[in-house]
Specification:
- The chain is an alpha+beta fold.
- Helix content is 43%, strand content 26%.
- The protein contains 5 helices and 6 strands, in the order E-E-H-E-H-E-H-E-E-H-H.
- Strands 1-2-6-5-4-3 form a 6-stranded antiparallel β-sheet.
- Helix 1 packs across helix 5.
- It is globular, with a radius of gyration of 15 Å.
- The two termini are 13 Å apart.
């Protein structure tokens, strides 16, 4: 499912396990994990309820630098982020920004075209592996 530049893939696993699997997948692919944010834990700290929601921030300078060189403001959307979240029906989703949407958002051109395509292909693969779904 894609909406407003966000790609969402239903996961076969809970939120924490989906993010654990994503960490493992991106690390094995040679990417760096910069941060893991547990939004539900943060909500609990202030006495608020929030369904399981975790964000992973990851990437590699080799992939993101060409985008930032093309249009420096693209750095606001990098490194890559993926959000695992549980909806009202208890389904778990893994969502991320579509690389082609990011390219359009920032007016990226030929200088970063190959990097955008590589990010799009790579995201499809790592998200499918983390969510336990077919890559097709």
């Amino acid at each position: 499912m894609t909406e407003n530049g966000l790609v969402s893939v239903e996961s076969r696993f809970g939120v924490a396990e989906t993010i654990d699997r994503l960490v493992d997948t991106v690390t094995r692919a040679g990417l760096r994990v910069f941060a893991r944010v547990d939004h539900a834990a943060g909500a609990r700290e202030v006495g608020a309820a929030l369904r399981p929601t975790e964000l992973l921030i990851f990437g590699h300078p080799k992939g993101g630098t060409p985008l930032i060189q093309d249009r420096q403001l693209a750095g606001i959307d990098l490194p890559i982020k993926a959000l695992a979240w549980e909806d009202e029906q208890g389904k778990v989703w893994l969502s991320y920004n579509d690389a082609h949407w990011l390219a359009e958002r920032h007016g990226l051109g030929d200088a970063s075209r190959d990097a955008v395509a590589a990010i799009a292909t790579g995201m499809k693969k790592v998200v499918a592996a983390a969510a336990g779904v077919d890559q097709s």
